[in-house]
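Forum: Protein Structure Q&A
Topic: Joint prediction for protein chains with partners

I've read a bunch of threads here and the consensus seems to be that you should model interacting components together rather than docking separate models afterwards. I'd like to see that in practice. Below is the full input, 222 residues plus whatever partners are listed. Could one of the regulars post the assembled result?
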Amino acid sequence: TQLLEQSPQFLSIQEGENLTVYCNSSSVFSSLQWYRQEPGEGPVLLVTVVTGGEVKKLKRLTFQFGDARKDSSLHITAAQPGDTGLYLCAGVLSNAGNMLTFGGGTRLMVKP
Amino acid sequence: DAGITQSPRHKVTETGTPVTLRCHQTENHRYMYWYRQDPGHGLRLIHYSYGVKDTDKGEVSDGYSVSRSKTEDFLLTLESATSSQTSVYFCAISGTGELFFGEGSRLTVL
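Posted by a regular:
Agreed with the consensus. Here's the joint model:
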């Protein structure tokens, strides 16, 4: 069992649809990050959230940190083929310095 | 883009042979990390370094060793490779909490 559970593991949708990816834990995190990874490349940071209840928007992507800082979600509006990739959440435990723990990832495919 | 390069990018080796992966950075960041990525497991930390000659174990360190003799280089060594170490290995660097990743090294152990 991973410390951070992501769901769904796989998601295939049509262009223009909306979707939400979840990142859940029973532990409290001091901060949480979302990364996107494309095939053959390393992950790239999308956003960092640090405050419970925080909402950040990045164009069509909306990130939310749970009030209790145990979970997070990523919502994509009107998905485009360019959003295709592996989405990873990663958190810093409240008592673990600055070490990141990664979730298992959500693989998203957006079909034209 | 962060200046971080990994070598080799691809390697096929046989069980029992030693393997060294190299990570080189030009950003002068203090922290360097080695992760492995396997389907369904996300990224798992192998070892990390917080300065020259300062290293520590991650969650999956068995069978791996590291060295950092200078700021810019962080080496990952598999003393005797096993098939369970077939994976994609990523190096990452960090200065202020955000991780910058290399492009990965795909290792196949036959």
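The mean pLDDT of chain B is 93.
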